[in-house]
Structure formats: structure tokens, C-alpha cells
Write a structure and sequence with these properties.
Strand content of chain A: 15-25%
Distance between the termini of chain A: 18 Å
Largest interface: A-B, 52 and 54 residues
Shape of chain B: globular
Distance between the termini of chain B: 57 Å
Largest sheet of chain A: 8 strands, mixed
Shape of chain A: globular
Number of strands of chain B: 17
Radius of gyration of chain B: 23 Å
Structural class of chain A: alpha/beta
Radius of gyration of chain A: 22 Å
Oligomer: heterodimer
Number of strands of chain A: 16
């Protein structure tokens, strides 16, 4: 399928299952299975996949006749990973401007900025992420022409073909000392802009008259974009780290009929009880134990563990340098491991990269766990998935095995040590 | 080497050259070291850590063994060591011991956290006023209160090299520090460690200066500027050598020494083998060119840092005796990192070259064994048989070698500095942590004793860090 054709097909997939064609029936037997449906992992369990869906998973599951049987003794099976904050599909080489589509700085698009049309399903980063066991990811916009709003993110489902699962599924905004400059220099202005935009979007719902409202700081396009937010259909994801901002985010849920998710959240542990009470989920990188900025003075290694204890719904992302997107799968399990090393329960950390994001982003009826009817997004590991020495045995997305032949692996195989050294230069090796 | 540095220190302490006839042409050059160290080991007690799995840093593993730390040195390793009176005994069955880790690429102390990017006064990673700032020394910019030092210590790092940034071709002198807390940089400066010279090739220098309309604007421009600088350094060294010879012969006594040039002095120190080159360089072509330039001017590059494509030319690195300091998994973020693979360190190691894992980050600098674990795992999946006892060298004895400190640190052997990490478990497991970290035989960090967990000034008194009631 050409990229052009894939882009044309994208709208057809919105909200629909883009079912793979003629997927075989696959059974993995005798493995340790983390179903992520609650309870302990199933030892010596079986999982059966067919037509892109899970038929069954657990103990005492029958293997259908004719199924491709994979011996799982000593192996571990989990749902595919889910990264809650990446720029997958929106970047190829960070330093090459023309390959980057994740943010804008000029009007006219503010909250209405929507990254869906830029998504590149043929990105080598996506191939790498799939090979590393990533099944779903949030791609979010980094900035728009009207701060503090960054615009609409997209929910991606990897595994071949179109990657866009849901466009306009969440609205993003940035608050705090690092971003306040674009709102005039004070985070108070950021909150005022968010509140007045929500007010006007609510009024827009009532008035619903065409034409830009008078005295508005926002374009009609941007207010229209916020309509699904004030109708509660789309969450407002607020990037904030300082406790005061996290509490302001919680306050929005009291003053408006909206769903709020906090992204960043390095001081979230300081408002853990309130976050839990307000049902505000937190997307965080649990490996950050050192304040990068003053907004993060309270950063500590057990942030995730403290949030777990308070009952906050948590999902992970990686916010360290290139890992956010270039290692969207590989680094995700590492930070989850560090969360466990710092007090979080193993199964909760695993949930924070599988089932919790599925709940937060509204696709728990499709994936994030291994249960009958859910997407057959399955990773087979040769050990604990959170350990760096553990490797991937196989990745199935939408019921089909994903190629491990990433660009990195092709380079590896070209340059792997050989005795005697080949006579011809590396360019003659591994050519297609 | 140590004697040469001591001689240079002396040269700084007394009125500079000319007053006395130097013994050799080499020591005619003024000092290789700028600021003296005021490091003193912390108070210490002899200790035996007993019954642990010991990775010695140079390829050996001792199961259920003891290690004796005596007067700051490693005194013995073996099973059931005698336990003299007055020696503290720590039972460590099930736990692991490694040498103190060495992070050869750190910006701690210059990249203060919390930082504010828009506030340049807080940032001292590099002097970028010219492509050649070899006269600068990063030790003049270190803030010893950077919280990253304490976190590195808690992560098992006992020695780190702080390097200037990579915007310039010649970035100035590096400094080797201990991670123990001190009031000033000099309090934590590693005594008698050779300074390094940070260099950079490839995209960063030409990207930075070229975008300002200044030279270099291309790789060829970078190399031309480097070669011109090395030639100047040769000439400078020759002037000092001639001056030294004349004085030594007693002819023309009282002749004025050549004018001192701090920039050329650093480069001449490299040519004399007293300053070690640490070169930021990603791509195979760039690495090959740089190794050739080093041959042309007869110096050695100690390590090529961020050598993302080292796996393509490991034979060149092995032949030059140059280490590759790498990440396991950084790739793609710029064109010269486009070809990064996770097996890089493993392939370099398999070719008989010296592989090192480095951090370049105060976060990664807390988890160097995990970096090694990822590279080891990738190498194993590519078919290489890499043991833990082998890959631990990537964060211990190999960086010690690149720093020229392999006679003192980086391995657990009798007579070596007692820089020792006691891990709660397998150091390559994400769940393991350093329980105790010893520096020169002194307990500098104890995970179970808040009184042995240093807190920098910067983190005191913040309500945001206090417990929530």
C-alpha cells in the first residue's frame, strides 16, 4: 500500500475496526500470561488469537485444531505496550525540520490545530516501536498558534496499514513556567485563557450562531474545537508539573463539565488524594527524580508509587531526551521498571503501560488487556518485560506477527562480527 | 605520567620557567593542571563485605566471596577472609559487588538543575565565543552543589569526568571528579588525574558557527581548522623545547622564555601525552578522519564519545587504541545519529576495541549498569556471548583506561582505590540498587541510613519537597 493510498484510507478507519485480512489462528501455549484483567498472571496459560482478535486467554484454554502453535514454556505474554505521550508519526529526524510536524507557532490555528493530517504510517520510528512491542500510542501536538492550547492529539494503533485510530480524541494545553512566555509571561494568564476559552465554547454551544463572537480572544475555529471538550466528549490534557498548577487543573473539573487528564505531573504526589477524588488521571515519566525546572522542585523517584497508593489512575510516558519518540516502546518498559524499583507494584506498573492508558484514552473495549474480543495485540517476551536483559520473542499486532526487520536490525546484520571478514564491503550484505 | 603532572604542578607553584633549568624538554612547558585538588577522603573504617558475588571489573567473577577494604585500598578478595578485630563486617550473601562506576561523559555541575534554558547565567556547559577555546577549563565553572553529583553517587558512580560541550572544535579542558560531596570543585577533584581536552567534530560545530556566518561551515572547514591548530601547537612546543635545551646547556642563561599561550599550551599538552583527548564524534567517516589526523600529528585520542557508528569501524578503533564511549539506544535524532544500533558497544567489544557506556545526562548517569544491560542484551541476541563480568568493564575498567586512571580505579584488585559498590542484587537488573557506595574506603552513601545520604544545599528548605501531611 502506498503512503498516499494509506492517507486516503484513513478517514474510512475512523471509529471503525480496520480488520486485517485473512489472519491465521495462533495459539501461544504454556506461557506466563499477564492478561491485565485483574488478578495474578496465569502460569502455564494459553492465548488464542484469530482474525485480529483474542479468542481467549488464561488457564484451561483450548487450542483450536489447525492453529499455529507457539510453545511458550519459560516465556511471558503481555498485551502490547501503550505509550501515552509521543510524537510518533510526526517526526523522522528531530534535527531535520522538514520531517517534523508536531507543532506550530503561528496563528491562525490554536486549539483547532489537529495533527492527524501529518501522520506518517511509514515512519521508521513506528516500525521500531512495533518491533519493541508498542501497540498503541498517543501522538500529541507540542504547540499551536494560540497558547496555552496545543491542539488535538491523535490516538494511534500500530501494526500495519493505517495508524490513526482516533483523531481529535483529546485536546492538549501547556501550563507552567516553561511555557508561560507564550501567554505573556505568567501562568495566571494561561489559566485565564483556558477558562475564558471554555466559557466561550460553552456559550458557543448555547448560541451556536455563525460568525466570530465579539470581544473574543479566540477564533471561531478554536472555539469550535473546544466544543467537544466542554461537552465532556473529549478530555482536556493539561501539561503541568507544579503542584499549584495541578490543583488548578483539578479545579477545572469542579467548575466545568469536562474531563481533565494531567500530563507531566512531577509534583502530582503532593495532590494525590485530590487527583484520585476528582478522577483525574496522570500521565508521567516515573524515572524523573531530579527537578529539571523550578516547576519540578518536588520531583521524586516514588511519585508513581505514591499516586498508586492514593488510588490515582496512572499511565506512563518517557520524557527524557530522544526516548520520548525514538524509543517509544523500548524506553517505556524501562521507566515502568524504575517505577517498580521505587515502590510501585509490578502489576500496576505494567498496567500503566497497557491497560491503564486504554482506560484513560477510552479504548478499554478494544485493547490494553488480553480478553476475548479485544484486539490481538500481544507481546511474547523471554522474561520479565520490565527488565533490560529481557528480549522480545514475537510481537503480534491486530493478530499478525510484526516484522523485527527494523532499520536498526538491518544495520546490525550488515555489520555483525564475522570470521573471516567478508571480502566485499558491507554495502553488498543484506541488500534487498 | 603522575610524576610528570607533579612536576608541572611544581612548575606552577614556583616562579614560571626560566628561573631553573628543566630536566627535560617536555617539562619546559608550563603546567598541565590548573587548579590543585583539595580532596580528602571521608572518615573511614576498615570493612569486610562478606559472601557476595563480586565482579572485579576486568572480566572475573568471584561467587560467595569477601572483599577487605583497608585504609582506603582494596586489601584482599577471597573466600572466608580472616576478620581482624576492629574491622566492620557487612554480611552480603545474595548481594553483588562491583567497582565504583565511572561516568566518562558528564556535564554535572555545569548544567545545574533546576536549570532555566532561557536564563544563560545559570548555564556553563560550554564557552562558545570561538571554535577554539582550548584555553578554557571546565573546572573553573563547576558548582559542587549540583544535586546530580549526589544522585550519581547513589547510582553507584564514584568517579566522573565533566566535559565541556560540543559546540566548539576545541572545547577546553575536562576535569575528573569524585562524586563525594564537597564545598567546592577542588574538594572533589580527583587528585593527580590527567586533564582531558574536549574536542568535537561533525554537525555541532559547523551547525553552530556556520549558522552565524562564521567558520567552520563544513566538515572540511572543521578539519582544516583542527590541523592548523595542531600545527601551531607543534611549533609552540618546539619553541619551548628549544628554550628548555638552551637553558639546560647553560648557554644564553637568562634568555626570556617564549610567550605563554594558554590555548596552545593545552594542545601542546596533548602532543606531549599529558592531556588526553576526548572527542565528540558520531559517524564512521568522521571517526576515521579524526583517527588519521591524530596519526598525522602523533597523538592519541583516548575516547571517541557518542560514537554512534563505532560498530562500523571497530577495527580502526582497536588499531588506534581508542575507546568508543556510547549510549545503548540513542539514534535517529540527527543525521549523524541516524544509524545508531543497540549492539554498538557489543560489536566494538567483540572486535577487541574498548567499549564504554557513558551518560551525557544526569538521569542516565544514575543507571549506567542498565545502559550496559541493554547493550549486553542486544549483543547476546545478535549471537555474541557476553557475560556480566565482561560487560561490567564498560562502566568500570574501560573508562578508567580512557581516563588514564587504570592504575588506581575501575577494578577490584589488591592495592587499588577502595571505590566499591554493594548492590542489593544483580547490578544489571532494573530492580537492584546500590545499598552502599564506598569511595577511597569511606562509606559515602548508604541507602538505609539517611545520615549517609548527602543532600546538596540547593535542595534544602523547599516546601515542595517536604512530606505531605
Amino acid at each position: 500500500m502506498t503512503a498516499r493510498l494509506a492517507m486516503r484510507l484513513l478517514p474510512l478507519c475512523l471509529g471503525l475496526a480496520c480488520a486485517p485480512t485473512l489472519a491465521e489462528t495462533i495459539a501461544i501455549v504454556d506461557a506466563k500470561i499477564y492478561t491485565m484483567t485483574g488478578g495474578a498472571p496465569v502460569e502455564n496459560g494459553t492465548i488464542v488469537m484469530r482474525d485480529g482478535r483474542i479468542v481467549d486467554a488464561g488457564a484451561n484454554v483450548e487450542v483450536p485444531a489447525g492453529a499455529r502453535r507457539i510453545e511458550g514454556r519459560g516465556l511471558v505474554v503481555t498485551p502490547a505496550l501503550f505509550n501515552s505521550a509521543t510524537q510518533l508519526g510526526l517526526t523522522e529526524v528531530s534535527s531535520v525540520g522538514a520531517t517534523n510536524d508536531h507543532g506550530i507557532s503561528e496563528a491562525p490555528l490554536g486549539a483547532a490545530f489537529d495533527i492527524q493530517y501529518a501522520l506518517n504510517p511509514r515512519s521508521m520510528l513506528i516500525r521500531q516501536a512495533e518491533a519493541d512491542g508498542l501497540g498503541r500510542a498517543v501522538s500529541f501536538p507540542t504547540s499551536s498558534g494560540a497558547a496555552p492550547f496545543s491542539g488535538f492529539g491523535a490516538l494511534l494503533h500500530l501494526g500495519g496499514g493505517a495508524i490513526l485510530e482516533r483523531a481529535r480524541f483529546a485536546m492538549f494545553a501547556d501550563v507552567g513556567g516553561q511555557s508561560s512566555g507564550r501567554a505573556g509571561g505568567s501562568r495566571s494568564a494561561q489559566w485565564q485563557l483556558i477558562r475564558s476559552a471554555l466559557d466561550e465554547a460553552q456559550a458557543l454551544r448555547i448560541a451556536a450562531k455563525p460568525g466570530t463572537p465579539r470581544d473574543s480572544s479566540f477564533s471561531r475555529l478554536d472555539l469550535m474545537a473546544l466544543k467537544p471538550v466542554v461537552e465532556g466528549a473529549v478530555p482536556l490534557v493539561i501539561d503541568a508539573n507544579r503542584e499549584s498548577d495541578i490543583r488548578q487543573a483539578i479545579a477545572l473539573t469542579r467548575d466545568y463539565p469536562i474531563r481533565v487528564v494531567v500530563k507531566g505531573g512531577l509534583e502530582a504526589w503532593r495532590a494525590a488524594g485530590e487527583l484520585a477524588a476528582a478522577g483525574v488521571a496522570v500521565i508521567l515519566d516515573p524515572s524523573i527524580n531530579l527537578p529539571l525546572y523550578f516547576d519540578e522542585l518536588g520531583a521524586r523517584a516514588d511519585n508513581a508509587a505514591l499516586l498508586q497508593r492514593a488510588g490515582v489512575l496512572v499511565a506512563f510516558r518517557v520524557n527524557l531526551s530522544i526516548h520520548t519518540t525514538f524509543n517509544a516502546g523500548f524506553a517505556l518498559r524501562e521507566v515502568a521498571g524504575l517505577a517498580v524499583a521505587n515502590g510501585m507494584d509490578h502489576h500496576v506498573a505494567l498496567a500503566a503501560i497497557t491497560s491503564n492508558p486504554a482506560r484513560i484514552w477510552g479504548v478499554a473495549d478494544k485493547g490494553g488487556a488480553l480478553a476475548p474480543g479485544l484486539d490481538a495485540d500481544v507481546v511474547v517476551w523471554d522474561g520479565d518485560p520490565l527488565e533490560p536483559l529481557t528480549g522480545i520473542v514475537a510481537v503480534f499486532l491486530r493478530g499478525r506477527e510484526v516484522s523485527q526487520a527494523t532499520r536498526q536490525i538491518e544495520l546490525r546484520d550488515r555489520y555483525r562480527p564475522r570470521t573471516p571478514a567478508p571480502a566485499l564491503p558491507p554495502a553488498y550484505r543484506g541488500t534487498q | 605520567m603522575r610524576a610528570a603532572i607533579a612536576a608541572c604542578l611544581l612548575a606552577l607553584a614556583v616562579p614560571p620557567a626560566g628561573a631553573q633549568a628543566p630536566e627535560s624538554p617536555r617539562s619546559a612547558l608550563p603546567g598541565a593542571e590548573f587548579l590543585p585538588s583539595s580532596y580528602r577522603p571521608l572518615p573511614r573504617q576498615d570493612v569486610i563485605i562478606a559472601g557476595a558475588t563480586i565482579l572485579d571489573g576486568i572480566g572475573n567473577r568471584h561467587d560467595q566471596s569477601d572483599i577487605l577494604l583497608q585504609e582506603g585500598k582494596i586489601a584482599a578478595i577471597g573466600r572466608n577472609l580472616p576478620r581482624p578485630d576492629g574491622v566492620r563486617v557487612i554480611e552480603a550473601a545474595g548481594r553483588w559487588i562491583t567497582p565504583g562506576l565511572i561516568d566518562i561523559h558528564s556535564h554535572n555541575g555545569t548544567y545545574m538543575l533546576p536549570i532555566v534554558y532561557e536564563n544563560p547565567p545559570t548555564w556553563d556547559v560550554a564557552e562558545v565565543s570561538s571554535p577554539n577555546v582550548a584555553e578554557t577549563a571546565i573546572e573553573h565553572a563547576i558548582n559542587a552543589q549540583d544535586p546530580a553529583f549526589g544522585l550519581a553517587l547513589a547510582g553507584g558512580v564514584t568517579t566522573l569526568q565533566v566535559l565541556p560541550g560540543s559546540v566548539t572544535l576545541f572545547g577546553g579542558r575536562s576535569v575528573v571528579l569524585k562524586t563525594v560531596p564537597g564545598r567546592t570543585m577542588q574538594d572533589i577533584k580527583f587528585p593527580d588525574a590527567a586533564p582531558g581536552l574536549k574536542m568535537a567534530c561533525g554537525e555541532n560545530p559547523k551547525g553552530n558557527f556556520g549558522s552565524k556566518g562564521q567558520a567552520p561551515t563544513s566538515r572540511q572547514g572543521e578539519v582544516a581548522m583542527m590541523r592548523a591548530a595542531w600545527q601551531n601547537a607543534r611549533d609552540y612546543r618546539d619553541r619551548w623545547r628549544r628554550h628548555g635545551r638552551r637553558d639546560a646547556d647553560g648557554e644564553r642563561g637568562g634568555r626570556e622564555p617564549p610567550a605563554r599561550d594558554l590555548e596552545l599550551e593545552t594542545l601542546a599538552g596533548v602532543l606531549d601525552g599529558e592531556i588526553r583527548v576526548h572527542l565528540h564524534c558520531y559517524a564512521a567517516d568522521d571517526i576515521a578522519v579524526m583517527l588519521s589526523i591524530a596519526r598525522e600529528f602523533d597523538f592519541r585520542i583516548a575516547a571517541i564519545h557518542h560514537a554512534v557508528e563505532a560498530y562500523k569501524v571497530p577495527d580502526l578503533l582497536a588499531a588506534a587504541g581508542t575507546c568508543a564511549a556510547v549510549w545503548p539506544d540513542w539514534w535517529g535524532f540527527k543525521m549523524e545519529a541516524f544509524d545508531g544500533i543497540r549492539e554498538n558497544a557489543a560489536f566494538v567489544d567483540a572486535a577487541g576495541a574498548c567499549a564504554i557506556m557513558h551518560s551525557d545526562s544526569p538521569f542516565i548517569g544514575q543507571h549506567l549498569t542498565l545502559e550496559a544491560a541493554k547493550a549486553m542484551a542486544a549483543g547476546r541476541r545478535a549471537g555474541l556471548d557476553i557475560s556480566r563480568e565482561r560487560s561490567i568493564a564498560w562502566v568500570t575498567s574501560n573508562p578508567a583506561r580512557a581516563l588514564g586512571l587504570d592504575d588506581r580505579i575501575g577494578r577490584l584488585a589488591t592495592g587499588f582505590n577502595a571505590d566499591v559498590v554493594l548492590w542489593s542484587g544483580d547490578p544489571f537488573s532494573i530492580y537492584s540498587k546500590p545499598d552502599q557506595v564506598y569511595v577511597d574506603g569511606a562509606l559515602a552513601y548508604d541507602r538505609n541510613d539517611p545520615e549517609r545520604q548527602p543532600v546538596p544545599d540547593l535542595l534544602l528548605g523547599h516546601p515542595a519537597r517536604e512530606a505531605v501531611r
